[in-house]
Design brief:
Elements: E1 4-7, E2 10-13, E3 18-24, E4 33-39, E5 46-52, E6 59-60, E7 68-73, E8 78-83, E9 92-99, E10 106-107, E11 110-111, E12 117-118, E13 122-127
Parallel strand pairs: 2-13
Antiparallel strand pairs: 1-3, 3-8, 4-5, 4-9, 5-6, 7-8, 9-12, 9-13, 10-11
Length: about 130
């Protein structure tokens, strides 16, 4: 069973940085996709980044390219999301999710994976 736990959210002023962590048993799966999503009040859930559990070049949504960076630490079974140059529009609940059955399948603007497992979410609030 895949278990995911996010942490690292908080409140920060515009232009600041936060690092989110996702730790869990997804690292036991050799062919899986891990993704970061966010959902703001009244808005649809948005995929912001994804990477295969075995590593490789991450995918990023257009809204965060150049500002957010994924990093894998297999020794700690942790996926990090470094968020720099934060903007008020980045305010949302951020979720780590996993598809334990397939590698990431990225197309124009979205992931085709079925994310069956989700963390509890961590709140990120960016003030101006």
């Amino acid at each position: 069973q895949v278990q995911l736990v996010e942490s690292g959210g908080g409140s920060v002023q515009a232009g600041g940085s936060l690092r989110l962590s996702c730790v869990g048993s997804i690292f036991l799966y050799s062919s899986a996709c891990m993704g970061w999503f966010r959902q703001a009040p009244g808005k649809e859930r948005e995929v912001i980044a994804a990477v295969n559990s075995r590593g490789g070049v991450p995918y990023y949504g257009d809204s965060v390219k150049g500002r957010f960076t994924l990093a894998l630490d297999n020794a700690k079974s942790t996926l990090y999301l470094q968020m720099n140059s934060l903007k008020p529009e980045d305010t949302a609940v951020y979720y780590c999710a996993a598809d334990a059955t397939a590698f990431c399948q990225w197309t124009v603007g979205r992931l085709l994976n079925n994310f069956f497992y989700w963390g509890q979410g961590t709140q990120v609030t960016v003030s101006s």
